[in-house]
Amino acid sequence: MTDYVLPKVWTWDQPSGGQFANINRPIAGPTHEKELPVGKHPFQLYSLATPNGQKVTILFEELLEKGHRDAEYDAWPIRIGEGEQFGSGFVEVNPNSKIPALVDRAGPEPVRIFESGAILLYLAEKFGEFLPTAKIARAETLSWLMWQVGAAPFLGGGFGHFFAYAPEKFEYPINRYSMEAKRQFDVLNRRLADSQYVAGPDYSIADIAIWPWYGGVALGRNYTGAAEFLATDEYEHVLRWAKQIDQRPAVKRGRIVNKMTGDPSQQLHERHDASDFELRTEDKVPLSAEAEDLAAVRDDAI
Ligand SMILES: N[C@@H](CCC(=O)N[C@@H](CS)C(=O)NCC(=O)O)C(=O)O
Q1: Would you say the CB of residue 97 lies under 6 angstroms from ligand 1?
Q2: Is residue 74 part of a domain?
Q3: Per-residue CA distances from 51 to 16, 17, 110, 172, 177 (Å)
Q4: Measured in whole angstroms, how far is the alpha carbon of residue 102 from the centre of its chain?
Q5: Into how many domains does the chain fold?
Q6: What is the extent of the structural domain holding 111?
Q7: Does 231 reside within a domain?
Q8: Is residue 98 part of a domain?
Q9: What are the tens digits of pLDDT across the range 141-183?
């Protein structure tokens, strides 16, 4: 039992204590003036390698892999933990202050696109790839794409939040969202028992949207301990599909773009050129003067 008494009107008067509580606000709009950087390519992506961010960088790398040189892009990191999504330039591109956000500068007027599902659709239509044109196959692909957009907040904002980030382990929401997360895994598992890819025999933007979330949990990458907790090994067809997509060269590249944590060889903070994957991952970039000072302090301490 909790001693919480429901007030008549909710007010924002105390931090919730959970991880990321410092960036949560009940109001929209910018908190500070900051222009966004613009690189040399037609596409400017402002993102981070979260599952929602990975969707877009994987699609860009898949388009480049297919030979679409016009899909070259600059990818700039937006450090959401530091509130960079509330800078004025970012809010102009995405009034919802969430990564990923894209600007297409190929035409006479820049086009802004926000919401990862809308970005996948925009790019798939622009390049005529990963979205079938035949009526039934297209409807199936769009259905699964929209399924992901509607379903993942229960996996991430619901299950992931209460399993990994909330200040305490609360039984009620963990039960509620584990139930829903497992149901969603079962939806996917039943589909993938009959189908090579989520929307049919061909790899599509539906797989690109769904894999970073559900593949990420099944492969043990999202929310430490979640694969065991949700017993995702039971979903054998999801696991088969997740492992298969994980092997794609474009996926291996796309998922490390704008990645700021983990193994330095798997972090590419900014992406401006195909060669960056070889030359500019964090294990190869020389330490900044500030980082060198910090390393020296640590060495002294030892
Ligand atoms: N529905 C959005 C969700 C995007 C989203 O939730 N992005 C998160 C990171 S995965 C974010 O930017 N969070 C920052 C914040 O909430 O302030 C999409 O699919 O693009």
Answers
A1: yes
A2: yes
A3: 24, 24, 26, 26, 18
A4: 13
A5: 1
A6: 43-127
A7: no
A8: yes
A9: 999 999 999 999 999 999 999 999 999 999 999 999 999 999 9
